[in-house]
Amino acid sequence: MTQDTPEFDVIARHFTRPAPNAVLGVGDDSALLQLSRGMELAISVDTMVSGTHFFPDVDPENLGHKALAVNLSDMAAMGAMPYWAMLALTLPKVDHDWLAAFAKGFFDLAEEFDVTLIGGDTTRGPLTLTVTIMGEVPAGASLRRSGAKAGNDIWVSGHIGDAALAVAHRHGKLELTEADYREAVMRLYEPTPRVALGQALRGLATAAIDISDGLLADVGHICKLSRLGAVVELAALPLSPIAAKHVASDVGRNAIIAGGDDYELCFTAHPNSREVLMDLSKMLGVPLTRIGQVKRGKGVSLVGGDGKPVKIDGRGYDHFSAP
Ligand code: ADP
Ligand code: MG
Q: Which residue among 23, 121, 123 is best mutated to probe the pocket of ligand 1, counting the most ligand atoms within 8 A of its Cβ?
């Protein structure tokens, strides 16, 4: 019998599981999928680089969760049902304890959402994780960024700001109490992808996005593709008790509105849908909050409780902008 090379050992030990929803999973030159009739394939990829997207000392189980969660969140934002994932792993060395913990975080979440790992790639180099996610959405029913209409409400799910506050704390820009940091950092590492909400929003939301770059930047992405503007009300934002303690400071407020990494859904809907959306919120147990309005024009403005503009420093995360 031939001995497995370390690469195949990694794949066999940590990343080979049954793939009941695929024609063919891990092990061949490619996976094979059968799409359902009348459905479009939704497909998206996200890369996470050590030191850029996560602190190098992150718990590998949290990292496994996050690598998949951010991709599930993209499916949610399209109103798609996630089914299949591929994992491209670049590792500085083979550390089986680290890999076992990473795989646990990844597969625990995958099982929760009935997502199957159908393949990937394993290479050596600086720690980098790339996950491709695939799912299905009924033809023509996807939630796109481009569908917002003037006069639509802007909504956000859950609460925002905690993840960015944890990052700001780690960078020494503000100080959270130890208990607050512990809670906020879990929102950074273990975001909850709003998959059921995304699918329930088909036919209700006119446009949708998941909040990864920062609330205002992501509202801006909807506005740009919908060729409209928006007003967001600071006082209306759904803040956690932690975020509420920091919204009065410039640094805290900037983290909350521009920091990102929340992986909540932000979407637009006709004002006629308010009641249905509140019912949906109750049914799913996911808070939904109206935070502003789509307007004619260009750009996103943030207004305070007095209706006056609030100065914004952060512009959202951009990998290639000057620091
Ligand atoms: P190839 O040489 O054709 O690229 P590989 O040797 O890279 O194939 O991979 C062998 C099989 O293992 C393929 O089916 C591939 O999809 C799968 N695979 C490789 N790395 C991973 C991984 N990290 N997670 C899941 N599947 C993987
Ligand atoms: Mg390969």
A: 121
